Amino acid sequence: MDTNINEKLLDERLAMLEKTRAWSPRTISKLEGLIRTGDDFSLFRINPIKFSTEKNIPENEAIDLFLFGSKYLLFDMNWNLICPGCGDIVSSFRTLKTLHSHFYCNVCHVSTEASLDDYIQIAFTISPEIREIAFHHPESLSVEDYYFKYRFYLDAKYPNGLRFADVVSQVMKCLSYISPKGKERFDIEVTAGFLSGGDLVNGADVVFEINGEIKPEKQNLSLKLMDGKFEPRSGVLSPGKVTLEIENTMDRKGSILLTNLPAGGGAGVLNIGNFLSGKRILTSQTFRDLYRTEVIQGTEGIGVKDIAVLFTDLKGSTALYDKIGDLKAFSLVRQHFDSLGKVVVNNSGAIVKTIGDAVMATFMNPFDAVNSAIEMLKEIKEFNRGLKGKEIILKIGVHKGPSIAVTLNDRLDYFGSTVNIASRVQELAGAEEIYITEDVYSYPRVQELLRSLNAAPENARLKGIHEEMKVYKITH
Questions:
Q1: Is the peptide bond before 58 cis (omega within 30 degrees of 0)?
Q2: What's the rounded Cα separation, in Å, for the pair 362 and 59?
Q3: Is pTM, for the whole model, over 0.85?
Q4: d(CA 175, CA 258)
Q5: What gap in Å lies between CA 325 and CA 371, rounded to an integer?
Q6: pLDDT tens digits for 136-168?
């Protein structure tokens, strides 16, 4: 295989990657094998989670591998917006700061608001400095590769198990590039429903309703691609044979994909499998450490449907500062941050920020958050050995729910009632206590996790929250 690899750069950057941390055995060699022997498509929009399964590497380590690989310029990291109806990668952004969650799909003809939980995918493509692949030059791809490999997410499947690409192949009426100032003609036959599609090269869409009786004579449909739009963009046809002529009036290449869909539309919302979501990468401590300058632009933020938020604070910290002096107390507080940070990372979470003596951390799910809280108390108990009279006394609160990822004080943060409630729940806790909400307590496996501890339910009125909430006090 002629891969045209820049050997010097590859060796240098793999060496940097290898020195970063202690990787599992053969992890770097497995990555090098992919870079050297993988075909072009396997090096385009690599899914770290899929890579972890195929190469038998822990998921979190595989994610870290590609994050560091991106930082060391082995890979380009992209944030992709995937349409839930057709799997079209509607937009792709090199950085989080240019990502926006609202998009219009030219295939489905719908507007969508994506959340960080789903349909925002982070993927990695080999750097052209390391190895050139065909997908670095989408303008040179065949029309089939452009649509079915560059634009459509091939792993996307409908609830019935069919891949979107296979469904399209069954209902597709035409697929072609249209040269600048060129014309293309297609003889097709359509049935009741819709003749729908567009030009994904230029972002143009077109949809014709097909209804009524079958027309025995051939119908003629003429479309013009003008200024990145089709004219006409919509209309009505009868079932039967159609001669379709498309004229590209522009000085740049156009394309056309048309499908004949039934009146009911598609086969449902797509399942795009297990991929690296925006939510997961923002709960990666490695991402937060490596990409501190990555922020969300604008004032609206990007929604997250469900995230677990943990707050810690110290009980009696003012007395500790008075007792041992500001400098010594501050040093202890900094050390306890390091101890808590290790626990958070070990439970697949990330520290969002520290506020005075307090920590705010987020997790993909409440199980990891509660497990982290329990281990934090154990870690601080060990931390306090030999600190007689200078002990750090921890109290913790956990809540889950929707939130908004935003930029506050030039850093990625979360905003909304879920964060406020988590903070207020933590304020209920006393020394070496964990308070969790009903939503957290009822999450799968959490009660099993708490089996060896005391979990006492109570109703609490939280500051700034109108209604009483059921919470659980967790103690040894």
A1: no
A2: 18
A3: yes
A4: 7
A5: 33
A6: 999 999 999 999 999 998 888 888 888 888 888
